[in-house]
Design a protein that fits this description.
The structure holds two protein chains of two kinds. By secondary structure, chain A is an all-alpha fold. In chain A, 66% of the residues lie in helices and 0% in strands. Chain B is built from 22 helices and 25 strands. The chains are: A mainly alpha, B alpha/beta.
Chain lengths: 325, 568
């Protein structure tokens, strides 16, 4: 790919490696056929549950009536979107979603990494296994259980406030405080999911070549130095991959957790895009509007995930897939 | 069933009642909103049209005499009959096997554990019916999502139940005309006399299932005294503290009682969320349709001055510190436990909460437990009023694709299932097989463990059942107290605007009549998370962004056409 008449690569693309012609697709197919076959079941699931339902987004452009169905529902053009964008409640939900996502990115995302590093430094396998089991366990609880548990501990009639009242102190009802709600839900998310999140990072650590640590130790690297220069760089690929996925999912902050706590703190702080689509789409018998909200969310998420992936490539990481460059 | 004969009294159904009442109060329109190309202009039942289609009411003469008779109150309210003992000589109300071997599937909501398919109870009932009526109960909590899935997927069963509190959300007005059988040719006027047990269902139940002046729905638990809620208190604890419930005569004295009862440091709060009864105290016109009648004219239900006053009071209560913090955190599932354990002393709940199983559960948690109810009172201490709810909250429909003979067979099955209290058929449908599902005790039938799992769940009863009756074998004090409360409330009953009227609203108003945003803010005000000013802004916004058009449509198509329930 040189500019004709010169030996220089084209402007702005000089960083690219010259393309070596790869094997033809026939050869690739023969080489990878067993791998491809193995992906078929997963692919079928994705088609059935992710791609086929996408045709449902047509309802975003209809006054959808579930009784007459897609085919007979009248077309709405972009009406649902103009209603959506004119609704301050929607923008409030959008803002809440972004803020919560940001708070969780800062306060939640590093927790499993830190935990994995800590756990990795524990030598006794028994202690490690016990800690891991205890921290995973909440992952298997439903949100109803988690929220009830928090309510029992920190709620207005919970253990904390009961103790405060008995000591003659004024109660502190964090479960019903809209201002601190974002930290509350992040704390709940950390408690429920951080232990589960460790698994991937531990796997990444396990994949690091132990000889690196040995030679570093021989060269006199401290524990801190080894972590900083060997463990963290070794995990970097996985961290970036998960970060990209997380950004792509930034607008899917959760549903049940917010639905359950909606009235405790009020919709002004607890409404997120998914609960908005549920209340105003499904409950409010306005499927078109709900679908429009969902489609909007999908498009923004796509932009986010592509952007984050691009950023990862710029930093020389693989991101979701290896850049061809 | 073992309690007030009605499902309305089963614990599993409480949530449903609450949901219904809640829907009436804060959530969704009980009647409204639908459309299709065929009914794009919408329609409401007219007084004249109903007169021509409603079936005759022919009370049964056989069967036990109630110990507590039906009494009528104001505005056509009537108190359900009460029975203190279960009769031993059961009468047969259906002479021959009703079915002719047909095969049908029925889907009903169920708030409780789903019984195993093909269990001995189902087999026994099907044998008695002479048909294969396969019951497929679906979780009541997800039912509002189940119905659209069945419809959109073209998987409607032969017989489907849809609670009327979802009429608006599910566009039932449109659904009936496009998917369900018109029963008018089979049941109108004297034709219903071919089915004596169906004919003994009071007319109000049929009216609640009529759309566009035609009969579609088959009602369950028809009652002339369906009230949204009752203000309950812990009678045992009030007596121990020497508090006379009669001293609470108005809104201020209720709040004063809240102060007296609350002791947060010992984990006792006066109230749960009592918005349902605050609406009654302030005489708030039901907001279910989003439209009400003011001086005979259609008007926004959200503009009613009573609603604003009630919300101001509710907000004050929410902020008073007398409401249990878990209740304000919308933890409704623990509501009963809070009341049983004495952490909450005053609560608002559906009439269905007051029955034998409640007494059993309450006493298990707290031995001296007794549930009491405040007589209805007005916020200013004046003459109280209480709005009547529709005569039936549960309605089942037959599939349009059934043939004439199949519809007749299903109606014959319905006739069997609608047999009244004290009959052989009623006992089989509600208790199952003697010896397997229940045994006869001194006070009446008692379920066996197997019977509790199978017969004590509401399945066939949710398709159709006879006139509601109050009975709690072994807990006659509960039956008597509830009967007395209802008789008192019935004296103060009134029919709110559009009472027992199904309005088929055009599609363009679907989301306007649901008014999700305003109803949501109303709920938030009662939890103290939004202010009355925010509610007023939302109400004004609703009116300007489609609400006024809906009001105009009501005036033109419902009020001016002198639909039933408009007082014309």
């Amino acid at each position: 790919m040189t500019v004709p008449g010169t030996l220089l690569p084209p402007r702005g693309r000089w960083r690219r490696r010259p393309r070596v012609p790869g094997p033809s697709w026939r050869v690739k197919l023969r080489r990878d056929r067993s791998l491809l076959l193995m992906t078929v079941p997963a692919l079928a699931l994705v088609v059935a549950f992710n791609y086929l339902p996408m045709f449902g987004t047509v309802t975003a452009f209809q006054y959808y009536d579930y009784i007459t169905g897609f085919l007979a529902s009248p077309w709405a053009g972009l009406d649902n979107f103009s209603t959506l964008f004119a609704d301050p409640t929607f923008w409030r939900a959008f803002e809440n979603t972004l803020v919560l996502s940001l708070v969780q990115l800062v306060l939640y995302f590093p927790v499993p990494i830190a935990l994995a590093l800590l756990l990795n430094s524990v030598l006794s396998t028994k202690v490690r296994a016990t800690i891991q089991a205890i921290t995973y366990l909440p992952h298997f609880f439903g949100w109803v259980v988690v929220v009830t548990l928090f309510q029992e501990m920190l709620g207005g009639a919970g253990v904390l406030n009961h103790t405060l009242r008995q000591q003659g102190l004024s109660p502190w009802n964090i479960m019903a405080n809209p201002d601190t709600f974002k930290y509350l839900v992040t704390a709940q998310a950390v408690w429920k999911e951080a232990g589960w999140g460790i698994i991937v990072f531990l796997a990444a650590i396990a994949a690091i070549d132990p000889s690196l640590y040995e030679s570093a130790a021989v060269d006199g690297a401290s524990r801190w130095g080894r972590m900083w220069h060997i463990t963290l760089p070794g995990m970097r690929g996985v961290i970036v991959l998960l970060l990209v996925l997380r950004l792509g999912n930034a607008l899917s902050i959760g549903f049940e957790q917010f639905l359950i706590q909606r009235y405790a703190v009020g919709s002004s702080s607890a409404e997120v895009l998914d609960t908005y689509a549920y209340y105003y789409g499904v409950v409010g018998n306005n499927y078109g509007l709900g679908a429009a909200a969902g489609l909007f969310k999908g498009v923004v998420s796509l932009v986010l995930i592509l952007g984050a992936n691009k950023l990862a490539h710029l930093f020389g990481e693989d991101g979701l897939y290896r850049s061809e460059r | 069933m073992g309690s007030d004969s009605a499902a309305l009294d089963r614990r599993s159904f409480l949530r449903a009642t609450l949901l219904g009442a809640g829907a009436a109060a804060v959530g969704t329109p009980l009647l409204a909103s639908c459309s299709s190309s065929s009914t794009a202009n919408g329609k409401a039942n007219s007084t004249a049209g109903l007169k021509a289609t409603l079936p005759d009411y022919v009370p049964l003469t056989a069967g036990p005499k109630p110990d507590l008779p039906i009494v009528t109150g104001a505005a056509g309210a009537s108190v359900d009959p009460g029975y203190l003992s279960y009769p031993t000589d059961l009468v047969a109300t259906v002479a021959k096997v009703p079915g002719s071997g047909g095969t049908y599937t029925a889907i009903t909501p169920l708030w409780g554990p789903i019984p195993a398919a093909g269990n001995p109870y189902y087999q026994a009932v099907n044998k008695a019916l002479g048909a294969s009526l396969t019951m497929k109960p679906a979780s009541g909590n997800d039912y509002a999502q189940t119905v659209p899935t069945l419809v959109a997927g073209g998987k409607l069963p032969e017989w489907l139940q849809i609670p009327t509190w979802w009429n608006g959300n599910l566009n039932v007005g449109e659904l009936v005309t496009s998917k369900f059988a018109d029963l008018t040719p089979y049941l109108a006027g004297a034709k219903i006399r071919a089915y004596p047990n169906l004919a003994a269902i009071p007319t109000g139940g049929w009216q609640a299932g009529a759309w566009n002046d035609r009969l579609y729905g088959i009602p369950s638990f028809t009652s002339g005294s369906n009230f949204a809620a009752i203000l309950y208190y812990r009678k045992d604890l009030f007596e121990a503290k020497g508090i006379d419930p009669a001293s609470v005569k108005d809104a201020d004295s209720l709040l004063a009682l809240g102060k007296e009862l609350t002791s947060a440091s010992s984990n006792v709060w006066a109230f749960d969320v009592v918005w349902l009864m605050i609406q009654q105290m302030f005489g708030v016109p039901p907001t279910g349709n989003a439209v009400t009648l003011t001086d005979g004219k259609a008007a926004s239900a959200f503009d009613a001055p009573q609603l604003e006053a009630a919300l101001e009071y509710a907000y004050k209560v929410a902020k008073s510190g007398y409401v249990h913090p878990d209740a304000l955190a919308n933890n409704t599932s623990q509501g009963k436990q809070r009341f049983y354990s004495g952490h909450v002393l005053v609560t608002a709940d559906g009439p269905g909460a007051w029955n034998g199983p409640d007494a059993i559960e309450g006493r298990t948690a707290n031995a001296p437990y007794v549930r009491g109810a405040f007589p209805v009172f007005a916020h200013d201490g004046g003459t109280p009023t209480i709005p009547l709810g529709n005569s039936a909250a549960l309605m089942s429909y037959l599939n349009k694709s059934l043939s004439d003979a199949q519809i007749k067979e299903c109606l014959a099955l319905a006739d069997y299932l609608a047999a009244p209290f004290g009959s052989k058929e009623y006992t089989l449908v509600n208790y199952g097989v003697e010896g397997t599902d229940w045994t006869r005790g001194a006070t009446g039938p008692t379920y066996t463990t197997q019977g509790t799992k199978e017969a004590n769940q509401q399945t066939y009863q949710f398709l159709v059942s006879g006139q509601n009756a109050v009975t709690n074998p072994g807990y006659d004090d509960v039956t008597k107290a509830k009967y007395a409360w209802t008789a008192d409330a019935a004296k103060h009953a009134y029919q709110p605007a559009f009472w027992n009227l199904n309005v088929n609203t055009p599609a363009r108003f679907a989301s306007t009549s649901t008014a999700t945003q305003v109803n949501d803010i109303i709920k938030e005000v009662t939890y103290g998370t939004k202010t009355v000013a925010e509610f007023k802004a939302a109400a004004a916004n609703w009116k300007s962004s489609g609400g006024q058009a809906l009001i105009d449509w009501y005036q033109k198509s419902v009020v001016d056409t002198a639909a039933s329930g408009t007082g014309k």
